[in-house]
Write a structure and sequence with these properties.
This protein is of the alpha+beta class and 159 residues long. It contains four helices and five strands. 32% of the residues lie in helices and 25% in strands. A hairpin with a 2-residue loop joins strand 1 and strand 2.
Length: 159
């Protein structure tokens, strides 16, 4: 429970399972365990109750880069909540292998790496450099589910 204690000490939370609008159908696993790997579907920022939270819109237009960086942190916490439900204890994570960030970008916004740093930096803060160091993609995209400014997906290895 060391990782969960760090999350609490930082005043952060692991959200409840995602609550999506009634017209959204979920036909996939939020986190899929196979052998010693966990494949994590794309998560947006969530409130503690699992509801999707804003701000919503394009980074560089309706959403500031700073707000988007915070959204990346919240999306990472949402991922961690799904992983905890899948594996039981976040201390079983041996390595974060890759993080993929998708930033809803206004035309001309090209600092997606800075936005997705919110996820990478939180993982390092929680797990330490050896476990958190990962390969990464930070892409600007034209649309995201529910108009979230950032969606984060990942793959990790278990002990």
């Amino acid at each position: 429970m060391e990782i969960e204690n760090r999350i609490q000490a930082l005043g952060l939370y692991l959200p409840e399972p995602a609550k999506v609008p009634p017209d959204v159908r979920i036909h996939f696993a939020w986190a899929r365990v196979h052998g010693n790997r966990v494949y994590i579907s794309g998560h947006g920022p969530q409130a503690a109750d699992g509801s999707v939270i804003g701000p919503f819109g394009r980074v560089g237009a309706e959403v500031t880069p700073e707000q988007a960086t915070e959204a990346a942190r919240l999306a990472t916490l949402a991922m961690l909540g799904s992983v905890k439900r899948a594996i039981g204890d976040l201390d079983h994570i041996a390595a974060w292998l890759r993080v993929d960030g998708f930033v809803l970008s206004a035309p001309g916004f090209d600092r997606t790496t800075n936005v997705v740093n919110g996820s990478s930096m939180l993982l390092t803060e929680l797990f330490g450099e050896d476990i958190a160091r990962h390969a990464r993609t930070a892409m600007g995209v034209a649309a995201t589910p529910l108009n979230c400014p950032v969606v984060i997906a990942a793959e990790l290895a278990l002990r």
